[in-house]
Amino acid sequence: MWNKEKNSKIHRYDTLISSQTEIKGEIHFSGGLHIDGKVCGCVVAEPDAKAVVRISDQALIEGDIRAPHVIINGRVDGDVFCSEHVELAANAIVNGTVHYKLIEMLLGAQVNGNLVQHASSVAVEEDLVGSCVKTAVHSVSNG
Question: Are the CB atoms for 134 and 41 separated by under 8 Å?
Fold first, then answer.
């Protein structure tokens, strides 16, 4: 009734990575990608202005994300390069820098790093094309 068109965010997800799945290596995708599982490597959208990746509250990404549209409600240990719109939901935890054109951040979302706003998507798209370097978090145990 009130602003129905503005609030309707309908995305089509072509690919699902379930919560029982762990992937080691880079993922290249187009269209929509929904991740419930663990990815040790970068998540990279093919040059497609409509590509969207959604990281659920169960998901863990250990690597960079490069996509035009990104929705995060889980944990990302790496940088996020988003040429259009990034949404950080209430359970989002990003341990890295978020590069974006437009950002939406809900109460409870955490960014343990920097937020870098780009006035145009061209600057972020140049970063999208860049090489994906895996961000590794190492634990050292004495024993």
Answer: yes
